[in-house]
Amino acid sequence: MASKLLRAVILGPPGSGKGTVCQRIAQNFGLQHLSSGHFLRENIKASTEVGDMAKQYLEKGLLVPDHVITRLMLAELENRSGQHWLLDGFPRTLVQAEALNKICDLDLVITLNIPFETLKDRLSRRWIHPPSGRVYNLDFNPPHVPGIDDITGEPLIQQEDDKPEAVAARLRRYKDAAKPVIELYKSQGVLHQFSGTETNKIWPYVYTLFSNKIAPIQSKEAY
After folding, report:
1. Where does a ribonucleoside 5'-triphosphate bind (predicted)?
2. Domains and CATH numbers, the chain
């Protein structure tokens, strides 16, 4: 087993179970789960320069542009140059992927292909706690008390873009941006695609793929 540091990326549309898969990879293999959404929230909360820039776009309902998110994530990666890591939510566009390519060679990129109907159903059952980014699904991991965050007791909301009428446009946006990113990683020979409707059925294949690259820190597959 090579002792080199593992550099991995996970791609998948909203509702693909990406967060769950990331948690399992982090738990089983000791990779740092680096989520762009998490770092954005942290930087906005701390009023850093890049956080304030991002906030201006988000307050207008706009996507955070490539140069802002790239600057934020590359700075985070610089702080973690001695760790195995898994990127989640970055890169989302070809410009971001090319910026990442300049600073490191990726070992693994996994992309989750989930049927549109499944995504639509999952997103319509999704409620979030905005301050922490905690996500609940009424089918898989409902809150203990309906409509209330388990940890803080604060109310949960359904995001506008999780509502059925917004989902199709949102998934189309993801697909358009992700297509060239997927093509790039395919051409580099690092892309692995997983298809299905259930995270628990996809997970053993993801586990096997990572096991070939890095020794698990737990003796058996944790679910």
Report:
1. 15-20, 126, 135-136, 199
2. 7-32+80-212 (3.40.50.300)
